[in-house]
UniProtKB/TrEMBL annotation:
One Pfam family, short name: Nitroreductase
One GO term describing the cellular component: cytosol
Gene3D superfamilies: NADH Oxidase
Protein name: NAD(P)H-flavin oxidoreductase
Superkingdom classification of source: Bacteria
Entry annotated with the keyword Oxidoreductase: yes
Amino acid sequence: MNNINQTIIDAFNFRHATKQFDSNKKIATEDFDTILEAARLSPSSLGLEPWKFLVIQDQALRDELKEYSWGAAKQLATASHFVLILARKNVTSKSKHVQHMIKDIKQYEASTIPAVEQKYDDFQTGFHINDNERTLYDWASKQTYIALGNMMTTAALLGIDSCPMEGFDLDKVTDILAKKGIVDTEQFGLSVMAAFGYRQDDPPKEKTRQAQEDVIEWIE
Ligand SMILES: Cc1cc2nc3c(=O)[nH]c(=O)nc-3n(C[C@H](O)[C@H](O)[C@H](O)COP(=O)(O)O)c2cc1C
């Protein structure tokens, strides 16, 4: 295996779902900026970037969330950086967000916009994305997991530990964030959490994975 291949595989073996971080070790700004940039540059369906990344460094807020986050309690207490990944609601062609993406970000020419909107509508209908609000939200949420994966791999390549987390009471946590005005629940839902820092315990649990032949099949 050449160096880059080995570096990548080593990073995937290094990464594990870290429960307890060393709270004395902070991630350097440059490194965390790189992790955030990996998120921002991630691909998304139709390139609509239906996400937002909230970096929660306020310990009092973390403590509040901890009460309703059984799978994230230790990470909330000890991680150097803690991210809430939000997914956008109702990402349809006529929504404010999609109009902003089409006009301001992608800067499509006005004359092409009706065709673009039609393409988005047809795709969302054919893929059952716009069946209802829930299917639309789940589609946006899927995109956030791509960013999540890229953030964790980037961290691992930098020797930084991480943990993805769904172990929280969605309604209770959302309620806290909404009441504090941190999340506009008309526009966003909390998709998943991610913690970053440096492991407290070394080494972690042995990795368990199915064998390649159990999960990969070549049709030739
Ligand atoms: C979407 C997602 C949600 C997860 N939620 C939690 C969680 O709430 N708390 C936790 O400690 N680990 C959580 N995990 C970590 C998994 O349990 C872990 O990735 C899996 O057991 C494989 O172990 P490894 O990541 O150490 O290789 C989650 C993983 C994913 C991908």
